[in-house]
Amino acid sequence: MRAQSFSSMNTYFTCPRQYELTYVTPVIGYQETDATRYGTEVHLALEEYCRDGKPMSDNHSKFKPYGDKIISLPGDKYYEQEMALDKNLQPVKFDSPDAWVRGIIDVLVVNGNKALVNDWKTGKVKPDSDQLKLFAGFVMHHYPAVDTVKTVYSWVVHKKTTVETYTRSDLPDIWNHFVVKMAKIEASYDKDRWIPKTSGLCNGWCGATKEHCDFWKPRRS
Prior knowledge:
Layout: H1 6-14, H2 16-24, H3 34-52, H4 64-72, E1 76-85, E2 91-92, E3 101-111, E4 114-121, H5 130-142, E5 148-155, E6 160-167, H6 171-191
Parallel strand pairs: 4-5
Antiparallel strand pairs: 1-2, 1-3, 3-4, 5-6
């Protein structure tokens, strides 16, 4: 089984067939949309502003307060921080063949025994905090001195935040949560069984075609 990320796990639980076609076969390649392109632009603008002091363009200047908040925080700052763990929850290189789970953190601030994880979001506000939970686990395993991780989704377009705080005492619950998810994915690999799940994505938003999935329908005009 390939190393999993929040994105790949989310794909699997949205639709195992879509996961198969994206990560196993793979038939579906990365599909850039106007929304993902915009998200990439905003992420890069914020990263370069915070890390390098590069002025933001007029198109992105409304997001400057989010960058200023990061800049004002005490501690060591890391951007686009790659992290990975093996099955024993030991840190490994991001591209290691032993990697079991991995991810890239938009902003990590480490200050003594406390850390902040910030993930900039340009899409719709969603209640799912699994990505924050996963990143908190990463940080506490990669930084043994850190015992408290404040995690934040910054919904920069909607001017909202989602905040979750985790401590070392939460680690067993964090990994129990993801072990269950990973076991289901691993079972699909073992049995080579990828049962499709219907959703609104079937209406032309999934990269599959009728050839790959009976639930596929053309996109509505």
